[in-house]
Amino acid sequence: MTIPSPEFTDRGYFIYRFYEAALGRLPRYAEFVPDMASISGFQSMAENEASKVEFITGFMARQEFADKYAVLNRNLQHWDTMPPSVFQL
Question: Is the full-model pTM beyond 0.85?
Fold first, then answer.
């Protein structure tokens, strides 16, 4: 029986799932390796969570993410400009 590596199950799989959820695709090797390095190493649980938050923040600043969700951002900004009376029944 093989025991899965916590390094991959806790961190690598997080990146793998994040790409799938955010971009609808799997990470390329050239993306996966530096992303994995950014949240790897001997870290406490708090440091690991902080690394993940930092990864997510950086990921959301990437051009591919911005391009995919630019329309959503524009739509949300449109809702912000509507007067509150629009939402009253």
Answer: no
